[in-house]
Amino acid sequence: MALPASTVWSSRFRINLLRGQPCQLHGCSLSHAYNRQTLHSRSIKLRTMAQFSEQNKVKMQMSIFRKRLWEAAPDSLKDFPWKKAEDIVLQQLLLLGQKALKWSFITLFILSSVSDVIFCIYGNKELMIPFGLFVGCMMADFLKETSRKLFPNSEKTGLKQPLLGIGCFFVFVKFMSTFLTSQGQAFLLHVANGGLMQILWLWKGLLEGRDGQSGQNFFSGQETSDVTEANN
User: 94, 95, 115, 173: which could form a disulfide with 192 (CB 3.0–4.6 Å)?
Assistant: First the structure.
């Protein structure tokens, strides 16, 4: 039995409608996700702009407060040499750091020397102590004179770099002594200790000479300024 044409046409129309529904749903979901992403990006931009504007406002308020505070300050405070005081404070902090580093090295050297002496006494190698110290001191003096002849310009800088290089050499000798036998290790340990002891002694004399010279220059400068003020 054949179906009428109207029934066939209506069924086909329903099938086409059902086929088009998933596409419409998929397109709606894509557009919804795109709108959500756009809103999220816009909200982020608005937040960053608000934060940036708040930071600018805070900076402007701080600058205005600083100007008003400076205008309200007395003239004696304005005429104070702040730049010179800052340089002096930085210089003193640098000197304090140098002193702390120096005393830390000295403390480490003393502890290391005491442990080396105990090592030699425990191994019945007490004679290596004075012999190694003497050889180390002689080597330090020899290397200092050699560096002075090789680098004559180092006398102008006070032999800082040559002494530092010689000290690093003796530290290397102390490190390499750990790979030798007990007798060779005991000898090289005290050679390094003697060399470092001599380097510290020379460095102390160098610092004392520099401090004395700077003190003389300071007092001579004061005398010169007093004389000029008296003449005026």
Answer: 173
